[in-house]
Amino acid sequence: MEPYMTVAHGSQTQLAFVKEATPGVIPTNPSWQTARYVSEGLTLDKQTISSDEVREDRNRTDVTDVGRQVTGPVNTLFSFFTFDDWLAALLCGSWSGSMLKNSVLVKTLAFEKRFEMGATDVFTRYLGCRMNTLDLQLNAKQNITANWGILGIGSPAPETTPIAGSTYADATTTPIFNAALNVASLSITGLAANPKLQSLSIRVNNNLYAVDVVGQYEVYDFGLGIFDVTGSLTAVFESSDLYQAIIDHSDVGISATLSDGIGNSYEINLPKVKLTNGSPVGPGNGRAVVMEVPFTAIFDPSSAATMTVTRTFGGINPPVIPPALPSLNFSSIDNSQYIGQVI
What we know:
It contains two helices and 22 strands. By secondary structure, the protein is mainly beta. A hairpin with an 8-residue loop joins β18 (280-281) and β19. The chain starts with 13 loop residues before the first strand and ends in a 15-residue tail after the last strand.
């Protein structure tokens, strides 16, 4: 009988992150922030090439390891303050007071996974990580999901101990946003009648591309591509206004305010949007007529951005210097933000 081995389990796998001052370098005495997540797929993606030499016996002679980079998703449920560093990295900007808008700043994170293995844990780390994509999904009567796509420079060999001087802040405990109780407002500006939505998806894509150079095994750098914000909405057909805006190729704006019930909120704003398609379709018996409408956000001169996020602290007291933990204050409970018929 083989000796007993401890198996790592997903429910005991810790994911943590820290901001990097220099891309690809974990800071000294790192202050890790424990992440909240549902599932993750961060991996070291090896890049190999195979030999195509001709041999009489038809055998392949070699497979060569020529490079590597970090890639993969982290799938999460959206909550207040939990992902503010990730949002800043995604939008390549900095929080200016309560406002964040897309810009061109390079912001990188290091991630660490700790696999619980009994007496000796295993740590894997991923360096120089950029937030390439975000898929934000609002569906009626469901939690709001935020799925992040990450690219990184590299990953050192796994270790069995934490980095010297590491500290680990507990994960935030702010409530998860859901699309029934926590959508304080959802509007499409530029229409006479605001449509009721069954779903709204927003995809942010930095279109990062790897820069490889001779003599460099890992990725040398990632370049910023065009900042794309696209998505789709499913609207109940109550008025022809939305359809007319599609036909006229009118400029509209899409804005959603998420409030967590204890006074904290985000306003996610796409101030200038083109509706690229969509028509009312009769689905047959037992279903409402809806419109599936894809859209693309474009640069808005008045906002000097394509996308903005505004945060309002209510139920928590924000830290002065991140990544210190927020001090939670549940003394003022406010569950007045209820708009069950909108989304």
